[in-house]
Amino acid sequence: MNILAIGDVVSPSGCDFLRKNLPALKRLKKIDVCIVNGENSAQGNGIIPQSANHILDSGADVITTGNHAMRRFEIYEKFDSEAFPLIRPANFHRTAPGKGYYIIDKGAVQIAVINLQGVVYLENNENPFDCIDRILEEVAHCKIKLLDFHAEATAEKRAMGFYLDGRISAMFGTHTHVPTADAQILPNGTGYITDLGMTGPIHSVLGIKPELAIEKTRTNLPVKFENTEGACKMEGCIFEIDNKTGKTLSVEQVIIT
Q1: I need a surface site. Which of 79, 108, 145, 216 has the fewest CB within 10 A?
Q2: Span between the terminal Cα atoms of the chain, in Å
Q3: Is the Cα torsion angle 88, 90, 96, 102 positive or negative in sign?
Q4: CA dist., res. 66 & res. 37, Å (int)
Q5: pLDDT score for 155
Q6: How many domains does the chain have?
Q7: 6 CB contacts (<8 Å, ≥6 apart)?
Q8: Pair 207, 44: CB distance under 8 Å
Q9: Per-residue pLDDT tens digits for 64-76
């Protein structure tokens, strides 16, 4: 089975670029399941119903999120819908809207898509290592298990990858919007990449106008961020997974400009 994971979609421009390029990539690579991180798909940040529907209509099967998941109140109803394939980090507080994993039923095989957020340099949520242990018990019936680990620190992501090696099919990091050059199969058969990258404006600072990011970094004063327009890119990774063993057979990084 070919699983495509796409890095954080940023702004309406990123949504449009996804719509333009995802269907052809899925046909070319014979993709069976597509997972897209959409936590920054709305203008500014966060995710709204319109951007979520746009991502799904473009070819995503499940939308994952991260630290901006709860920014926009209008999306809460979608998070709470059991049938809507939108998830937030499972280690958020128990009162948060939504769910932390979604199961795709492909008939012969069931696929658990799990979302977690790191705690290094981010909010003080439940320890993600403890949280994933609990979830893996809940989805033990699924042969293929995938994790979007939305985290800041590369060391935390690497540690999680080795912690789960052989216990899940693949782990892909999100959040930093910069793709890492370490797509690989870990020793016990888990596909891995520290960060998928971003789908959105190329000439930007993580999707934001450079001059605004510079002003914020130089002055540490409040700055209203705005998304950049112009040329975009789409970044992600393809994991070929054995349906019988649940292990990754190959990993291919994808960058489309």
Answers
A1: 108
A2: 26
A3: positive
A4: 8
A5: 98
A6: 1
A7: 18, 22, 34, 35, 36, 37, 60, 196, 199, 234, 235, 236
A8: no
A9: 999 999 999 999 9
Residue 45: which pLDDT band, with cuts at 50, 70 and 90? confident
Decide if pLDDT at 23 tops 90.
yes
- Taking alpha carbons only, the member of 69, 67, 70, 61 closest to residue 102 is 61
Strand pairing report for 2-6 and 232-241: antiparallel
Closest C-alpha to 151, from 165, 132, 138: 132
Q: What is the pLDDT of residues 203-228, one digit of tens each?
A: 999 999 999 999 999 999 999 999 99
Mean pLDDT of the chain: 97
Phi first, then psi: what are they for 248, rounded to 5°? -80, 135
Which residue range(s) make up the domain with 158?
2-256
Residues with Cβ within 8 Å of 17's Cβ and at least 6 positions away in sequence, in order, are 199, 200, 232, 233, 234
Whether 22 contacts 234, CB under 8 Å: yes
Helix (H, G, I), strand (E, B), or coil: what is residue 23? helix
Active-site residue set: 68
Domain at 217, CATH number: 3.60.21.10
